[in-house]
Specification:
The protein is an alpha+beta fold and 174 residues long. 33% of the residues lie in helices and 23% in strands.
């Protein structure tokens, strides 16, 4: 178990390398009070990097000191904010990573287009549709996640994504 203070060195390294605070401002944030946009953006980007699947798991871990004044409700409201331009921020972050990594070396590179089925079960789900599953050749109720990714021979990074609906799903009641 390692003790971390409220300002770990690796966060400073992340800030210096990628300029996360400036990147967060590019998403056109609007916030009146509470935790800063830079802090919320830092938490949202660090949670998956530290391999936590949920914000709750992150806040229960030894890294909770990184969140400082941000509650799980503030983090979730920030992630659900329709005004924040996530696509622009992801594009700018990919440009910074691309400049930092430089040109491709001898490793193979690939552009990946993936359509993943996000199957849902239940009766009342907003926006659900019948989606064709390529694995078993059947139609299932759910969403399709369409993602464009770049593989540089060492790791894969997402360039863009979209949730796509196929045919409308109508619930028939007896």
């Amino acid at each position: 178990f390692i003790e971390y203070n409220s300002n770990p060195r690796y966060l400073d390294m992340l800030e210096k390398t990628f300029g996360l605070s400036a990147l967060a401002q590019q998403g056109r944030p609007r916030k009146r009070r509470g935790a800063s946009v830079a802090l919320l953006f830092l938490v949202v980007t660090v949670v998956p990097a530290l391999m936590y699947s949920t914000v709750r798991a992150f806040l229960a871990s030894q890294f909770a000191c990184l969140a400082r004044t941000a509650s799980k409700f503030a983090i979730h409201r920030f992630m659900d904010n329709p005004i924040f331009d996530w696509r622009k921020v992801m594009y700018l972050l990919n440009r910074k990573i691309n400049r930092r990594d430089g040109k491709a070396g001898a490793l193979p590179t690939a552009l990946i287009l993936d359509d993943t089925l996000l199957a849902k079960a239940g009766r009342r789900i907003e926006g659900v549709s019948l989606v064709h599953d390529h694995c078993d050749g059947k139609h299932k109720k759910g969403f399709k996640l369409l993602a464009l990714a770049y593989f540089n021979g060492a790791y894969t990074r997402t360039l863009d994504f979209s949730l796509v609906a196929e045919t409308a799903f109508k619930v028939t009641r007896p």
